[in-house]
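Long-time lurker, first post. I've been practising inverse folding by hand and with some scripts of my own, and I keep getting stuck on stretches where the structure tokens seem ambiguous. Below is the full token string for one chain I'm working on. Before anyone asks, I'm not after the true native sequence, just a reasonable design that respects the backbone. If someone could post their per-position residues I'd love to compare against what I wrote down in my notebook.
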């Protein structure tokens, strides 16, 4: 019994070290999957969660693009552009909620997968569009923009994977942008 106790006692620091190391690695991985500016998931983190959500037939894939973003950056500076991106990300994440996922794909392009519980996807996206187009608090009122949205209901394209659904949402977004 004494020998077993000694072996276990000597293994305790090693086990504790591994536990700390695993926790540190987990934090590093979570940090790597988050956009440093907005806090949203990066493309990789978004893709992992979105693929799980797409198994639900009520899933809706949304693509959002901040209109005239380059012009805002050039006219008002990168701080104003960053504030606009942060506000857009916060609003999108809040609207999507914990049951969905929002991510920043790059630049001023965001994606989300949300669950349409009530079959009112168009209404839900109309509300989202209004929320994303609100002026940013504390920013020059002249910094105004809109957000173009494109979306597809995953159930309408049962053979499509996330990449194909994002392409379809992108086409819908550009059609909305042209309108």
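-- Answer (accepted) --
I ran through it position by position. Result:
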């Amino acid at each position: 019994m004494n020998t077993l106790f000694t072996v276990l006692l000597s293994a305790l620091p090693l086990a504790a070290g591994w536990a700390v190391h695993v926790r540190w690695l987990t934090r590093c991985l979570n940090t790597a999957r988050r956009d440093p500016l907005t806090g949203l998931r990066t493309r990789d983190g978004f893709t992992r969660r979105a693929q799980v959500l797409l198994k639900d037939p009520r899933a809706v894939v949304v693509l959002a693009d901040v209109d005239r973003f380059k012009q805002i950056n050039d006219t008002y500076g990168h701080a104003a552009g960053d504030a606009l991106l942060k506000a857009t990300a916060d609003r999108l994440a809040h609207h999507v909620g914990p049951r969905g996922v929002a991510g920043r794909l790059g630049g001023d392009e965001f994606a989300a997968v949300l669950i349409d519980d009530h079959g009112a996807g168009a209404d839900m996206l109309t509300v989202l569009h209004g929320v994303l187009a609100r002026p940013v608090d504390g920013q020059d009122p002249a910094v105004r923009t809109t957000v173009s949205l494109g979306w597809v209901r995953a159930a309408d394209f049962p053979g499509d994977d996330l990449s194909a659904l994002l392409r379809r949402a992108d086409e819908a977004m550009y059609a909305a942008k042209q309108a």
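A couple of notes from the structure itself: Strands lie at 59-66, 101-106, 109-115, 147-153. The longest helix spans residues 2-32. Happy to go over any region you disagree with.
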